[in-house]
Amino acid sequence: MSEHLAELELVLASGSPRRRRMLKQLGLNFRVAVPAIDEAALAGEGPEAHALRLAAEKARAVAAPGNAVVLAADTVVAHRGDILGKPSGGREAAAMLRRLSGRTHRVITGVCILAGAREQTFSVSTEVEFKTLTAAEIERYVRTGEPMDKAGAYGIQGGAAPMVRAIRGSYTNVVGLPLCEVVEGLEEAQKRDGPRKGTKGFFADFCGGAVRGRGGMEDDKRS
Ligand SMILES: Cc1cn([C@H]2C[C@H](O)[C@@H](COP(=O)(O)OP(=O)(O)OP(=O)(O)O)O2)c(=O)[nH]c1=O
């Protein structure tokens, strides 16, 4: 990661405590602005197109001063072309978990980085395999309330960790912000102020290899 990235004037367009925590983990200076947009899917919209569109709408919805760079993201769970967003209640959460049980799905995060008139939008996809869940396991987990603000009704970083047999791809992408690609995008955005000497650090090295398995990230207190 470039040592100059900490100098970036950054606005995180998100109310997600996970995204805030992950950006902090990078040591970046940023302020938070919470976008208010309609997150409903358009008719016929696929999961990736949906995540990309919402990420761009979130970024555009917040005001940023002169040189600031705005970062926004949207995470969806995709199964057989369907979008599983945040559940509307306990029944829908349980239905989503029954659907994911014993199967592999994809978690797609759309990312938008706005730097003046320049806009980068991209998506990152991670495959997640769930073990077969019992009805009791699902009921217990839904009762914790944790699924309610999370795409696909689960948090890999929290109580759903033991439900996940395997992941292929970025772990931070599942939690809502693919840090490797976000850092690359922010470095790219910073170049508009003139190229800086980049130092290839942890993230560059980390991105070079296959990322498999999960890290040790705490869940937030929001249920
Ligand atoms: C699959 C999965 C999703 N999530 C979260 C990430 C996202 O915060 C959330 C999906 O909802 P989003 O609409 O992407 O984000 P948000 O509403 O939390 O925040 P904002 O729109 O203000 O940026 O689901 C987890 O925390 N863990 C997981 O394992």
TrEMBL record:
* Gene Ontology cellular component annotations, sorted alphabetically: cytoplasm
The first-level EC class reads hydrolase
Write out the entry's keywords from A to Z.
Answer: Cytoplasm, Hydrolase, Nucleotide metabolism
Q: Which InterPro entries match?
A: ITPase-like_fam, Maf-like
Essential cofactor(s): a divalent metal cation
Give a GO molecular function annotation for the protein: UTP diphosphatase activity
Q: Which GO terms describe its biological process?
A: nucleotide metabolic process
Where do the catalytic residues lie? 74 (proton acceptor)
The record places the site described as Important for substrate specificity at: 18, 75, 157
Q: Name one Pfam family in it.
A: Maf
Q: Does the keyword section mention Hydrolase?
A: yes
Q: Has UniProt tagged this entry with the keyword Magnesium?
A: no
Question: What's its catalytic activity?
Answer: UTP + H2O = UMP + diphosphate + H(+); dTTP + H2O = dTMP + diphosphate + H(+)
> EC?
3.6.1.9
Where does it localize?
Cytoplasm
Job of this protein: Nucleoside triphosphate pyrophosphatase that hydrolyzes dTTP and UTP. May have a dual role in cell division arrest and in preventing the incorporation of modified nucleotides into cellular nucleic acids.
The record's comment on protein family reads: Belongs to the Maf family. YhdE subfamily.
NCBIfam families, per database record = maf (TIGR00172)
What is the protein name for this chain? dTTP/UTP pyrophosphatase
Protein source organism: Kiritimatiella glycovorans
Q: What is the lineage of its organism?
A: Bacteria, Pseudomonadati, Kiritimatiellota, Kiritimatiellia, Kiritimatiellales
Q: Which gene encodes it?
A: maf
